[in-house]
Amino acid sequence: GTHTTEEMLHAHACIERGALSWRNNPVHWCPFSVEKTRPGSGSTAAVLEASTGRHAYFLGKPNGYMFPRARRKLAEVAHSEPEQVVMIGDTMETDILCGVQFGFHTGMVLSGGTRAEELATYAYRPEVIVASVAEFNDVLDQSDLRTLWSPGSPVRRNLSKTRVSLPAMHAASC
């Protein structure tokens, strides 16, 4: 969330005295409502990095340690193959980027941090794009995604003319 000036001054003083700055993620803003946003964890980190000269460590997405472990654990809990784990998210810079970098299938919901008109600005793409999480059940019921997201299936397919569907592209360097 948003921090008071006193909290930021205290954090600055602690970092100057040697404390480590640990943050959730590098996202600079988060949706607050349909029309409003609020500063994200990355904004707080940027202020403290600029004022102290010390970089934050991000524990959450896109942390490279977290995703391979999460993929194995999710597959274990679901009694499935790691290749069947799907990363569904609302932010290209964290959710979808991590999914692409770590070989997850990816699904994008446009109810959060990334808007439809911004998708073309990224070098990578989610496999499926829907307006909200609620639409994923409809998409699964009306398409061949269950087949697409199972081991041994063809790599990519266009899904439906009623949904935004872009070909998946992996970033040149991860």
Please explain how this structure is put together:
The protein is of the alpha/beta class and 174 residues long. The strands form 3 sheets. The chain has a 3-stranded parallel β-sheet, sandwiched between helices. Strands 1-4 form a two-stranded parallel ribbon. The protein has helices at 5-16, 41-52, 66-78, 92-101, 135-142, 145-148, and strands spanning 22-23, 29-31, 37-39, 57-58, 86-89, 105-109, 128-130. The protein has 6 helices and 7 strands.
Q: Which series of helices and strands comes N to C?
A: HEEEHEHEHEEHH
Total count of helical runs of at least 4 residues = 6
- For the termini, the CA-CA separation is 29 Å
Class per helix and strand makeup? alpha/beta
What is the tally of beta strands? Answer: 7
Percent of residues in helices comes to: 25-40%
The largest sheet has its strands arranged as 5-6-7
Contiguous uncertain segments of 5+ residues: 152-174
Taking all Cα atoms into account, the compactness measure Rg is 18 Å
Biggest β-sheet description: 3 strands, parallel
Shape: globular
* Mean pLDDT over the residues: 76
Beta percentage is 5-15%
Q: What oligomeric assembly is this protein in? A: single chain
